[in-house]
Specification:
Blueprint (H helix, E strand, L loop, with lengths): L1 H4 L2 H14 L2 H9 L11 H34 L1 H25 L3 H7 L6 H5 L8 H16 L1
Helix pairs in contact: 2-3, 4-5, 4-8, 5-8
């Protein structure tokens, strides 16, 4: 009777305590007595793909910001190395565009739906080199692999 009246939080605490004591019988009783529920949800293939896409969009945005910040920092300290960060920026952005294209997602639609882009990106646009196609292709494949997992 006690097992059936446990809240989910209480059951988690009791299960952790049983695990810490090495009491496998108690852990199994807690699991077996846990209420069984049936859920209806949005197709997990869709919801996981959307969540993965938005997480990847945030990661790309963070990478781009990191490359800009490194460029700005090194522009004053070591101008020779600062250009490599602009190249990294160009490669990541091209990879993201490739990934979106291969998924059939419009880049402008994703820009509107995804995380906000830094206005600093517009300021460095004229400084950007052409992306290295091979590097961008590899990065794009890694982005797509992340979404498939």
């Amino acid at each position: 009777m006690v097992y059936e009246s446990l809240t989910p939080d209480q059951r988690v605490v009791a299960c952790v305590e049983a695990l810490s004591r090495g009491d496998d019988n108690e852990r199994l009783r807690l699991i077996r007595s846990c209420p069984k529920l049936t859920y209806v949800q949005t197709d997990v293939r869709f919801s996981e793909a959307m969540e993965g896409l938005m997480c990847l969009a945030m990661a790309v945005e963070a990478d781009l910001k990191e490359h800009v910040l490194r460029f700005l920092f090194f522009a004053g300290v070591d101008p020779e190395i600062s250009g490599s960060f602009l190249q990294d920026f160009a490669n990541v952005r091209a990879a993201w565009r490739m990934a979106l294209t291969s998924m059939g997602i419009d880049e402008e639609a994703m820009a509107s739906a995804g995380p906000p882009t830094s206005p600093v990106f517009e300021l460095i646009e004229v400084l950007l080199p052409k992306p290295d196609f091979k590097t961008s292709e590899i990065l794009s494949a890694e982005m797509l692999d992340y979404l498939v997992q």
